[in-house]
Amino acid sequence: MEFSTLIQVLDSGVRLGIPLLLACLAGLYSERSGVFDIGLEGKMLMGAFAAGAVASITGSAWLGLAAAIGGSLALAAIHGLASITFRGNQLISGVAINFLASGLTVLIGQNLFHLGGRTPPIKGAARFESITLPGADALRDVPVIGPVYYDLISGHTILVYIAFAIVPLTWFLLFRTRFGLRLRAVGENPESVDTAGVSVLRLRYTAVAMAGILCGIAGAYLATSAPSAGFGKEMTAGKGFIALAALIFANWRPWRALGATMLFGVLEAVAIRFQNIDVGLFVVPVQFMQALPYILTVVILAGFIGKATPPRAGGQAYVKER
Amino acid sequence: MQANKDISIRVMPGTIHGIIGENGAGKSTLMSILYGFYRADAGEIFIRGKPTIIHDSQAAIRAGIGMVFQHFKLVQNFTVLENVILGVEEGMLLHPSLARARVALAQLAEEYALEVDPDALIEELSVGQLQRVEILKALYRHAEVLILDEPTGVLTPDEADHLFRILGNLREQGKTIILITHKLREIMEITDTVSVMRRGEMTATVKTSETSPEALAELMVGRKVLLDVTKGPANPGANVLEVENLRVIDADGVERVKGISFAIRAGEIFGIAGVSGNGQSELLKVLGGFQKATGTVRINGQEIDLSGHHSDGQTRRARGIAHVPEDRQHLGLIMDFTAWENLIFGYHNAPEYQSNALLMDNAGIIAEAARKLERFDVRPPSPMLPAKSFSGGNQQKLVLAREIERNPDLLLVGQPTRGVDIGAIEFIHKQIIALRDAGKAVLLVSVELDEILSMSDRIAVMFDGRIMGERDPEKTDQRELGLLMAGVGTEAA
Predict the structure, then answer these.
(1) What does B138-165 look like in DSSP terms, one character per residue?
(2) How many angstroms away from the CA of A187 is the closest CA of chain B?
């Protein structure tokens, strides 16, 4: 494989991995607090639709982003209400949110734009522009470093850099601050938090809201940064579930989440670029590459490599016992 | 329902105040109110003479009340230090709080002999150490009043002694301790004052030095309780159970039972004493059919399968072995299922429970369940309630009713009265003795020496997977059995 091809694949891996990374971190906050979130997909979809609709109407990418976060937060609020306050089943609530988002986006989209559920293509200031990092042009022709810096590191939209910045931020928040200690505790043993005089409900709502914000950003990224910018019906196409798989793969840790989502992104990029790969003896079908993230997750879950240990109180509503 | 009725209690500083009562007497409710978990419908709390409103745990902590719950409230994958600071961190960042707690913990450890490694993970600690972490948590929050809810329920006798030494230290340093328990011995051993609760009411508060276990027991139950079991002489018949050279190697490859042999005859109670974890549980599991073993076991002269290939709880029951397991909440009952369902588990394939080839005779089963509940004095006697809504003693009666009513040849009973209140203990003992008098064999495993001594017709002591010796309950005493339990013995069988 040529070096330039490698750079291209990695670059498109990053682009494909970013929504996974944001959704994965969203899931990380929610699940670390003990609230399972299979509604990542739905929240992302709602975010993408809100971003596409508002950006195309107002012509502002930033307003689109704000709308995406708002739309995703609204669904997060439903999830919080159902599973934290009313102690409903978190998986069912998540499934409901996925259905709700899938139906609502098309319904509202068709009503507003009459494009069969799509939003009009967005252009110019309604899209986030690629940012050329300082010195990228100058370094462009330097061998090896040039392509890596110019093509791979530079030239992404602001949302990509925000997503990467959230990784160390999340790590710091989780493991170095009071909020993080309490968040991790509430996902492991909410009683310990309650008896310490800290509100379990408030912590979990905060975590679910953070998941909402991050899914909103992920959705905005999908709708405003993709080559064919604009919202399309079911455009998340299962990314929320791959992000969940990445979360398990990452063992609910932020740096590993970065690694897992980038790996999954690159795998997807490889599948798109090469289709069937001929390794000489046999041909690896493209479906295998597409299935690889899931296969890897199952391997991790089965305990062959490392061990996935989810937060102990995950999935259980907190009921104060006598 | 009224869990606490018009209760007044005054606890003096620098004392250990015991609160004793049967399960469900309202002790835990009272303490939950003090810790802000529940709000009382009426009444006032005074701390050092000042009326104090405790509407949540934070308020209780501010008021200087610390609570050590029966089930620890610790985060498993956190260190001791992280658990200690949880909820009382200073500032947004963790580092300064952790450093400060490290110093404070070292001081507390020295002051009260409360050593715990601050960097150890909770999941690596023993139960006794976990309890010390809970006490440290309370002291780190400047607790002046420490409430302990059934603190020895999960401890070994050694650990319990250690705990009592710590409590003694705390009292010397002027801390006030409220000890909730249903064990009379602990009250007599360590408290200065004792309050007795019965059915939500405070029936008496007395100086411990001026009372006796019998008097307290009577106050708890509201009538005289026979702490000694009355039973006639045994009338043993032929061997029902014969065990020869039984060995158990568990899943971790550790030999838990190291070649034991004994026999139990019809019409006798064979008691096995010992500190828990010396192979008694494994013995029960082998006989109950869910643990592999080697050796020979015969029931009424016929050998039973020990390999685990052809046996389970069902086949054992078919051979006339009934089992009241040690861990009734996990092995004896399905807590979310109703009483009537629990009353047939294990026997649910019996022909009399079926209407026809397809359907079970639920109406008949429920009617029979109601009669069983009546006979075994289960309260409340309603077969439609889930098992979890019964108290510990009544849950045990459910298991006993199921097993005894099937009229087994051999009854295996593990810790029949663990977590059971005094009134129910008496009833359970009577039922087991009645079964013996009906000519059945009983294998009784208990860590309560009193129970073993008063119930058994013959006593064996297990230590480190071996039977240290067999004794006649008439000719032995607590001291001799205690030595055997500690592995100091003359004969090894």
Answers:
(1) HHHTT-SEEEEESTTTT--HHHHHHHHH
(2) 9
Count of domains in chain A?
Answer: 1
B149 and B177 inside one domain: yes
Report the distance separating Cα B175 and Cα B154, nearest Å: 24
Q: CA angle, corner B273, sides to B268 and B276, nearest 5? A: 135
Q: Same domain for B340 and B455?
A: yes
Same domain, B140 and B274: no
Q: In which domain, by residue range, is B103 found? A: 16-221
Are residues B261 and B179 part of one domain? Answer: no
B99 close to A (CB below 8 A): no
Q: Tell me: do B410 and B287 sit in the same domain.
A: yes
Helices B362-375 and B392-404, packing angle to 10 deg: 120
The residue of chain A with its CA nearest to that of B28 is A322
> Is residue B167 in a domain?
yes
How large is the ipTM?
0.87
Of residues A179, A188, A193, nearest to B87 (C-beta): A193
Residue B116 shares a structural domain with residue B164? yes
**pLDDT tens across the length of chain B (493 residues):** 567 888 888 899 999 999 987 766 788 788 888 888 888 888 888 988 888 888 888 889 999 999 998 888 999 999 999 999 999 998 899 999 999 999 999 999 888 888 899 999 998 888 888 999 999 999 999 999 999 988 887 677 778 888 999 999 999 999 999 999 877 778 888 999 999 888 788 888 999 999 887 788 777 766 555 556 778 888 899 999 999 999 998 877 778 899 999 999 999 999 998 877 788 989 999 999 888 999 999 999 999 988 888 888 888 988 999 999 988 888 899 999 999 999 998 888 888 899 988 999 999 999 999 999 999 988 888 999 999 888 888 899 999 999 998 889 999 999 888 778 777 888 899 999 999 999 999 999 987 778 888 899 999 999 889 998 899 998 988 778 877 877 776 544 4
CATH number, position B326: 3.40.50.300
For residues B144 and B64, the answer to whether their CB atoms sit within 8 Å is yes
CA dihedral sign, ordered B67, B71, B73, B79: positive
Q: Is B3 a domain residue?
A: no
Number of H helices, E strands in chain B: 16, 18
